[in-house]
Fold this sequence. Notes:
By secondary structure, this protein is α/β, with parallel strands linked by helices. The chain has helices at residues 14-17, 20-27, 64-75, 95-102, 119-124, 141-152, 200-218, 221-224, and strands at 2-7, 32-37, 50-51, 61-62, 82-92, 106-111, 128-131, 185-186, 189-190. Helices cover 32% and strands 18% of the residues. Helix 4 packs across helix 6. The longest helix has 19 residues, at 200-218. 23% of the residues are buried.
Amino acid sequence: MRIDILTIFPDLFRGPFSESIIKRALEKKLVDIRLHDIRSYATDKHKRVDDYPYGGGAGMVMMIEPIERCLEHLFAERTYDEVIFMTPDGQLLDQPLANQLSVTKNLILLCGHYKGVDERIRQHLVTFEISIGDYVLSGGELPAAVLTDALVRLIPGVLGDETSALSDSFQDRMLSPPVYTRPADYKGWKVPGVLLSGHDRKVAEWRHEEALRRTLERRPGLLEEE
């Protein structure tokens, strides 16, 4: 998978992409992540990427020209499955959507800033819009990093245990069950006996029951979704 990220703050990605799972995926060449500084496609001497909105009002709007030039440069090199704009009013990111996008080959993630991007970018160049929640952040960089992490961990070979991602919360419309590790007894706080029994069927049944219980308590709406 290749992910091209368009941003005016590429350094915001250096930390998240240089540690843990994404770092290992990059080192194994299981994913190719390219950061593109939109400012480098601005043609004026000040490298401006924003301007005042038509009609007045507070804030600035990201200009169409630098973004379009960057996209055209990428389009000339390959065909992309989606051009995704990270925006609070996009489709809410959930596990089924992450699963769907994880099997694509080439994605572009566009990070907005200020009051957003010129609407013509969304109308003519963007093919999909994604939100990570009903709140507003300073820009699209953190949402793009979240989406990238959600996708990369699903790529075969990225996780050490190939079945690990399949047991994550939301994969089967339920939350994950509780998990425990050593010691079995810590200050009187004990691990449930069934997990120490070595009985695979009973362990599986316990995990399913606990996942169902936790989902009913915390996110009952998941069980009502088709």
